């Protein structure tokens, strides 16, 4: 039996993206409309923390179908190791 069957992973979306796919990926993971997630990020931005949270999410969430996150790619390149996004 497939061990990954029914197992959700948090990844940036390729289909539901406006900028980097963070909100689309969170929406797909939670099973809600990505526009609701975008609205939450907009409110957080007005309150003073949304942009910071969005950038952190973009750095640590791998893209759908990708092998590693942007942050992992940056760290591996800094170490002189080969990395694929």
Automatic annotation (TrEMBL):
It is found in: Cell membrane. The chain crosses the membrane at residues 39-61. One of its GO terms (cellular component) is plasma membrane. Its main location: membrane. It is a single-pass membrane protein. Pfam families: PspC. Residues 8-64 form the Phage shock protein PspC N-terminal domain. It comes from the Bacteria. This is Phage shock protein PspC (Stress-responsive transcriptional regulator). Keywords: Cell membrane, Membrane, Transmembrane, Transmembrane helix.
